[in-house]
Specification:
Layout lengths: L2 E5 L6 E5 H21 L9 H18 L4 E6 L2 E9 L5 E8 L2 H17 L10 H16 L2 H19 L9 H11 L19 H20 L26 H10 L3 H13 L3 H5 L6 E2 L2 H5 L4 E4 L2 E6 H6 L5 E4 L9 E6 L8 E4 L2 H21 L20 H15 L8 H13 L4 H8 L4 H28 L5 H10 L5 H12 L1 H13 L1
Antiparallel strand pairs: 1-2, 3-4, 4-5, 6-7, 7-11, 8-10, 9-10
Helix pairs in contact: 4-5, 4-7, 9-13, 9-15, 15-17
């Protein structure tokens, strides 16, 4: 066996160590250690694998507590627990476990706890009632996960329909039967006015009940992860059946008839952009000139486009504060000092909403005209014009809100006796015609519409593709099934009967079309 040479740094001498001797000494030490453990009962039969795992878990938890580790992840069977210490109201250190289904979720929660403990913003989940849980759910989970519009919508559901009815219920007292009765009772609850918007229905619809269920299911799931609840009581809930009503849309013929009689240039541009680019109204009103390419060369080459990367939205100031203005690009100065809302330019709700959309040449030229109009307004009003670089801006530069466009559309409909539709229906019209024109290529339409998944396009617009499929069935009927005789019989008939060639038939029809020639042919026929 080869020797290993090492240098003694102090004496400068070389020591020679035999490899075999080193291995022998290590084996002796391992044997002695194993013997000691065996004598102490470490490997006794009564110590099961479960007890060993429990000992490991206990050891990890003790380290978290004793060594001051902020948070640690412990695997228990097929689940992962985040273990951390906190100081209670009396100043005593306590330990908390939060359980998650995956290691990724546990890691995310661990990082959040450590960050919040570092910054002094940590809130310990200690909910006892439904309202307590929902408050913690919003402050811990919602604030970090939801977009602003989602936060506002779910906050409204909680304060209007959940807390008033079951907010005081203790988490331990909630059963699946309790929740089923709650869902059924919601159908008799009157809908509330939210953000000065009058509800479309007097009572809550099945759709709203399902949205409330979705919110509670997620909140109770979080409660289980925080070990505030042993199980989720709404996982197998019985929900009211929802009937999907198809949205009314204009045909292209109706749309262009409306544009002919429309004397509002801003509304006309909005309608054309929504129809040609499949835009939501917030995306439309949030367009800025730096996200539009309408140069002469681009228009000529068919490369003019708009880039959608923000949207205009009016949000609740409280939600804005709670979310620390997350995703807000620009907050506009309030027109009224007493308002409880704010108008903002914000990032889109989903990543797929950020997209590039090519413009039809006619629509691109409309934007060129609009740009010239805006430049004239700037020159006319000078310093009184506040330039936010918006395509849809008022005469003083402030953004035009959705309610202004909606009022103008309603006036156009009423004045010209047009079918009643909402502005969002033009986005549906756009997607409908794009699917018809491209033969049902949903992926390319998704690129324009900004839907998060192709499935969303398929679920809403599959009936359009069904029209083409029905047409295919009709073609098969005409081609293969409407003949009275089989192809073999037809061939036999063609062999026995003289046929007139298409050329002879055409010549005969031309001759008969001339009155004089027709008379001549008839007289000849009599003489034969």
């Amino acid at each position: 066996m080869a020797d290993i040479k090492t240098r003694d740094a102090v004496k400068g001498t070389i020591k020679t160590i035999d490899k075999a001797a080193v291995a022998s000494e290590r084996m002796k030490a391992a044997y002695a250690k194993t013997k000691d453990k065996a004598e102490q009962g470490y490997y006794a039969e009564e110590n099961s694998a479960t007890e060993y795992a429990a000992d490991k878990i206990s050891h990890t938890a003790d380290r978290v507590k004793d060594e001051g580790i902020m948070a640690s992840i412990v695997k228990r069977k097929n689940r992962y627990s985040v273990v951390y210490t906190y100081t209670d109201e009396s100043g005593a250190k306590r330990q908390k476990w939060e359980t998650f289904a995956t290691n990724a979720e546990a890691k995310k929660r661990k990082k959040q706890i450590e960050f919040e403990q570092d910054t002094g913003t940590f809130i310990l989940p200690t909910a006892k009632t439904v309202s307590d849980l929902l408050e913690e759910y919003m402050s811990i989970y919602g604030v970090n996960t939801w977009a602003m519009s989602t936060y506002e919508a779910r906050r409204s559901l909680i304060f209007n329909y959940i807390n008033p009815l079951i907010g005081d219920l203790k988490l331990d007292d909630i059963t699946p039967r309790t929740m089923d009765k709650f869902y059924q009772s919601l159908l008799t609850v009157k809908a509330k006015v939210v953000n000065n918007r009058k509800p479309n229905n007097e009572y809550l619809t099945a759709h709203t009940v399902r949205e409330i269920h979705k919110l509670l299911r997620n909140a109770f799931n979080q409660g289980v992860k925080w070990e505030l609840m042993s199980r989720n009581p709404v996982l197998n809930a019985t929900l009211p059946k929802e009937e999907h009503k198809q949205r009314d849309i204009w045909t292209a013929e109706t749309l262009f008839k409306a544009l002919e009689v429309c004397d509002d240039d801003v509304l006309a541009l909005a309608l054309n952009l929504a129809f040609s680019c499949s835009l939501r109204i917030g995306e439309l009103l949030g367009l800025t000139w730096d996200c539009i390419d309408i140069s002469e060369n681009s228009i000529k080459g068919g490369n003019a486009y708009i880039f959608v990367n923000k949207e205009l939205q009016r949000v609740n100031r409280d939600a804005l504060e709670q979310l620390s203005e997350k995703g807000v690009i620009l907050k506009f100065p309030p027109a009224l000092s007493s308002t409880h809302t704010a108008l903002v330019l914000k990032e889109p709700k989903t990543k797929t909403s950020v997209r590039k959309i090519f413009l039809p040449k006619t629509v691109a030229e409309m934007l060129v005209k609009r740009y010239e109009e805006v430049e004239n307004l700037k020159e006319l009003f000078g310093d009184e014009y506040t330039d936010y670089n918006l395509v849809f801006a008022s005469s003083c530069g402030r953004p035009i809100e959705g309610q202004v466009i909606n009022r103008a559309l309603k006036k156009l409909i009423d004045d010209n006796d047009l079918p009643p539709v909402v502005f969002h229906s033009f986005r549906h019209s756009s997607i409908t015609y794009k699917l018809k024109l491209n033969g049902g290529d949903m992926k390319s339409v998704q690129g324009d519409s900004g839907h998060a998944q192709v499935k969303m396009v398929a679920d809403v617009y599959s009936h359009i593709i069904d029209d083409d499929r029905r047409l295919n069935a009709q073609r098969f009927e005409e081609q293969f099934y409407q003949t009275k005789e089989t192809p073999q019989a037809e061939e036999a008939q063609q062999k026995t009967e003289p046929s007139v060639s298409p050329t002879d038939q055409e010549m005969l029809l031309k001759l008969l079309a001339n009155p004089e020639m027709a008379t001549l042919l008839k007289s000849l026929a009599k003489n034969l």
